[in-house]
What does this fold into?
Amino acid sequence: MPVPQPQQNQPVPATAGFPADALRQSVHQREERWKAYLRLIAIGDEKALALLYDESSSLVYGLALRITGDPADAEEAVADVYTQIWKNASRFDASRGSAPGWLSILARSRALDRIRARANREVSSEENSTPEQVSGDSPEIAALLSQQREVIRAALADLSEEQRTPILLAFFEGLSHTEVAERLTQSLGTIKTRI
It folds into this structure.
């Protein structure tokens, strides 16, 4: 099928030379391939995992890097994502979302885990050091951060368990509201209200 050529003095569309139907078909083919890989991974096919990694790792890495802002943390997040895929590919449900969407959710979650781990290491390092050894922040900033941590701890302590648990899962484990609802076996609306 010939690609229509723009007339003179008309802007060239962004997909010029690549028809929209071909683009849609390419995206659909990728989706079908990735779903097939996930089905094979669920039954232990290592080659399918390697193929999925080859085709999707740039997407996963790019997202993890944007979230973490650190190449080393992004690489660790990518490793965590594919480990999780290997262990839990059977959990992918095509009726609930696309394969790239599922990989993006995993990447986001693992990247947030890396950020939390980094923050925990920094807090632990600060707690085990003398006040003079704490980071280069001024004493005022260190005091403000300490006060903010205490306010957050106190606020969480004032909440009921049914309010506190979804908040901790969403903000400190990086789960989506849907994932929190699934983990707590409660409706999505209830979780959103409590958060």
